[in-house]
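User: Some background: our group keeps a shared notebook of sequences we're curious about, and every so often someone picks one and asks for a predicted structure to add to the entry. Today it's my turn. The entry only has the sequence so far, pasted here. Could you supply the structure so I can complete it?
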Amino acid sequence: MDLQLTGRRAIVTGGSRGIGLATARALTAEGADVALVARHPEALRRAADELAAASGRTVVAVPADTGSDESVTAMVAEVADRLGGIEILVNSAARPNTGQLSEDALEDEINVKVRGYLRCARGVAPHMRAGGWGSIVNVAGMAARRTGSVVGAVRNVAVAAMTKNLADELGPQGINVNVVHPGLTITEVTPPLVQRIADAKGISMEEAAAEVGADVGVGRMMTADEVATVICFLASPRAIAINGDPVVASGGSKGWVYY
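Assistant: Of course. Here's the predicted structure to add to the notebook entry:
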């Protein structure tokens, strides 16, 4: 299937690693030009150089802090100038929910993952309206559907609610807005998490990984590239029939029926 992404211009926040970087890789493989956005310039530039060399597409590094109004405004203006427009936004800039997030950090987490996503969406919407089409994909997480982390649940539920509001507002203007809930996904931060589980239970890393995967419908954790494939589709014009509703990219949760 042609996702009709050739020549499209995208921003991926949290683009220097994890699901964000995997999504940027998927978008460039489909022919899109991408601006990678994150706070750390060196890691960002390395990622951009690698993606550009591998894909042959235009990939630019734009350091920015999505927790700052001024930084986001400057970032959007720079991307629009360097890429010539903006049609896709993938919001993925947030600290991973490893179960170690203190409740004292809730305000900071809301500022970055909720208000930060909203800042970026508001910033790019005029460019998408001007071009007659746009897609915004917000990466949240399965903590929106389960207890165990107050910070994880609150920020991800808030992202889902924000997504639906934006979808209703921007849909008539040709802009799709969707939210993706990954489960525990294999990225750079996964091994330490699995190691903590192994240490706590006195088992091996392999046994801990298998234990985590046993709760997943397909029997294992998803990779960042597998989640990125779902996001890439939602970011494309082909996904017009999906707007405002959550899409779960976790490999399936055993025992629950959602309808």
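Suggested note for the entry: Strands lie at 9-13, 33-37, 59-61, 88-91, 134-139, 175-182, 185-186, 222-223, 246-249. The chain has a mean pLDDT of 94.
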